[in-house]
Amino acid sequence: MVKASNNTVLHVADVHKTFGGLHALADVDLAIEEGKTHAIIGPNGAGKSTLLNVIVGKLAPTRGTVVLDGEVLTGKSPHEINQMGVARVFQTPEIFPDLSVFDNVMAPAFAKRDGSFKINIFNSLQSEKDIAQEAEEIIVDFGLEPMINTHAGALSRGHKRRLELAMCLIQKPRILLLDEPTAGMSRHDTNTTIDLLKKIKSTGMTKIIIEHDMHVVFSLADKVSVLAQGRIIAEGSPDEIRANPKVKEAYLGESSE
Amino acid sequence: MFNIPKKDAITFVLFAIVVLTMPIWLAPLGASYPGLLQKFAIYALLAVGYNILFGLTGYLSFGHAAFLGVGSYAAVWSFKLLSMNPVLALVFAIFFSGLFALAIGFISLRRSGIYFSILTLAFAQMSYKLAYSVLSPITHGENGLQLTLQDPRAIDMMFIERGSSLPTSSLFGIPMNGYAGFYFCAVILLIGFFIAQKITSSPFGMMLKGIKSNEDRMNYTGFNTKPYMLTAFVISGIYAGVAGGLLSITDPLAGAERMQWTASGELVLMTILGGVGTLVGPVIGAWIIKYFENIFSAFNESVLHNFFAFLPDNFESIVVLISSKFVGEGWHLTLGLMFVLVVVFLPGGIMEGVRRISARFSNRKDPSKGEEVIDPENLPKPDLKKGE
Ligand SMILES: Nc1ncnc2c1ncn2[C@@H]1O[C@H](COP(=O)(O)OP(=O)(O)OP(=O)(O)O)[C@@H](O)[C@H]1O
Ligand SMILES: [Mg+2]
To answer: Is the ipTM of this complex over 0.90?
Structure first.
């Protein structure tokens, strides 16, 4: 069992998740450190998304707890967990397809400022200058301003992913969870995303990133955990992971390098 | 508090002009009599309120007739017990329909989608049946709740003598029937429309649209969607209650048939016909349906003969024979066909038609059409062995 140290932000403690007879997660123990980018890699069906689902409150673990800054997240609902500072980019983009790109980015800013429920009827959206400006800035940063008034549902997959990332970042989360942020992207878009993520990394934001693309993992991660069949089979720096024969066998395949 | 975006302000002014001049422009259509004008205003208000729930959040309620009914009963009770003042009656209607909506909404909103709809339907039908049976001391069952000469009217009795005929609801001495009644309803409609505009353009309205678009995302974004939904449900229930109150104010007789599920169904039709999620659409839908129900249904063969008199005789009788199937008793057929045509060709309702036409005229690029969607959902995962 990994001991949570002083600079641990998120501690996944001994988490199990079973679906019927399937052990999607078993004995998963992770300590995510302040300001670090922690990559989780593993073959399809290893349980990576399930782990994030447990963290954000979409799924209740069969056993174990998740702790953020000393506060237990397990048992809380997704909106409470977000309000505590957990934001997530999903494997398939989860955005508001019927709202404009602008509104998509404004909504999370409202959640951050006003909390999980507030009846704000007397102001019009236009009169919320601070939030509008904040949203505009991040939209420009992300190169989405040509489509600021477009319905988000009409965006390309790559733009949807970038939008979702913007929606998470405007909340300045304590920890950002990224589920395959470059899946299905062209090499060019992938590189753009890597640059973007590097920029985020330089702000010192703590991140968990799930990624299949080793190029992405090795250029971003400070630490890598390898998940296979619900278990963490190896953990270490990117270089250690690359050299680990167990990982090569289970995941990278013998023909690696 | 009264500041609204310029575009909304223009819409409001135009809408106000259209509503307040209804007695004029409805005259050539044969619909400019007070009784019908009142209904136009009242059902428009009902539809505007319904749209706050259905249009903004996408939750389809089949139970709003119950709130309409509660509002009507509450208003008549306020007449009977306290005063013939219409404003007081509306306060009663707002309070009780709001309370009712809070209770029904609290339970129904434990589910979403079809289950939510079924729950609201069940509650409304239950209210309807109970109004005829267990609750008949309050609703007076099949006779309907009406005024009597013996009603206490406690507040009124402090100021005036008991008359020998049934009183009418009046404000500053103006009786709330006829055209005065219409204008009273019209003002309430305008207030309701303004509030709906404020809600739609507010952050709160955006949250409701967010719930419709992707409720899960709302949760992961930190919103507790339940209280948002409940608030929208109660607001929309109160609109229905006020509409019910106005029905009683213009005609102080409340019957349980107002709570039947068909009344809720009609409300859904109005909203879809006019344009779900738009502010003006549901109003247009309400007017069309009320027009058909009251005017089209009254057309008979002699009206048609007059209308087609310019045609040659033989031809005329054929045309009249065919068209007579679509009017009078057959008005449902026309309405049904119209509904089918709108839903098939204009899924966004009549307002979508309006938008398309104005887009064609203004010749501008449709902003809702973004770039082409490329969905690499089926693309293979990138090669796992690419580690540098
Ligand atoms: N809600 C669920 N109900 C039942 N089984 C589930 C559920 N979610 C995931 N599983 C199963 O749990 C296992 C792990 O799934 P998960 O989505 O976490 O894998 P993953 O590592 O994210 O894979 P991928 O790389 O394909 O995204 C799979 O066998 C999956 O079928
Ligand atoms: Mg996954």
So the answer is: yes
